[in-house]
Design a protein that fits this description.
The protein is α/β, with parallel strands linked by helices and about 290 residues long. The chain is about 35% helix and about 25% strand. The strands form three sheets. It has a nine-stranded mixed beta sheet with strand order 5-4-1-6-11-8-12-10-9. The protein has a two-stranded antiparallel ribbon with strand order 2-3. Strand 2 and strand 3 form a beta hairpin.
Length: about 290
Amino acid sequence: MNTVKKAIIPAAGLGTRFLPVTKAMPKEMLPIVDKPTIQYIVEEAIESGIEDIIIVTGKGKRAIEDHFDHNYELEDNLMKKHKFEMLEKVNYASNIDLHYIRQKEPKGLGHAVWCARKFIGNEPFAVLLGDDIVQAEKPGLRQLIEQYEETQCSVVGVQSVPDEETSRYGIVDPSTKEGRLYQVNNFVEKPEPGTAPSNLAIMGRYIFTPEIFGFLDKQQIGAGGEIQLTDAIQMLNEVQSVYAYDFEGTRYDVGEKMGFVKTTIDFALQNDEMKDELYDYLVAKVEEMNSAVR
């Protein structure tokens, strides 16, 4: 049985929602408390059993490579100052073995995945998007891998979203359901408001059989004038079953400003060093705002 040991993390987007900061800093390097967003994604992949990761980058993304590389001057400084706990955190990122390839043109998510086809070869593989951080007892990607091992078919991770938000996502049109696993009639990329076949949205975690590359090879232009991954998933589903799995866990949307702020607050409230002081600050701030309204 083929096992999933390789993963693609697309990180070539321009991050226009976070301008002007993303003019010089990759959005994947924006910190959630004290750790860049992309490190949470990489850690989930490793905790799920992934052994080889390729990050698809673009112009201005060198900071990602630097983050996962050794900084000997910094490490030596921390060692001399006996800051061993901080050194361990720094070394964790440095000891992850990653590969990189550039998406030379911004042609969309489907094209970014296609850029890594030679790295993947003829193997099943995972895709993790950097806009979604998942906190779960069992890593979200691991849950999908287990479904792949059962079905030997591609699986996309989904969760329910409010009806008014379905136009922001790829949406599945489910048929039969067994537990949390759905067979799917159709995959629809960002349906027009009021036309979504369900409120099950694709949440940035995928397991694919290598046959998906045959459809990405077509370079078919879809919504937004880009090569859409969802379109290739739909074509694959017409010849080979693609399942949807409603994975367990809390998904954080860090791809837009309000979601990023909420994620930062939630993670800070989970931090033993910060939570009490932050909680007191938030309570005092709410009381201050309420007093101003009265």
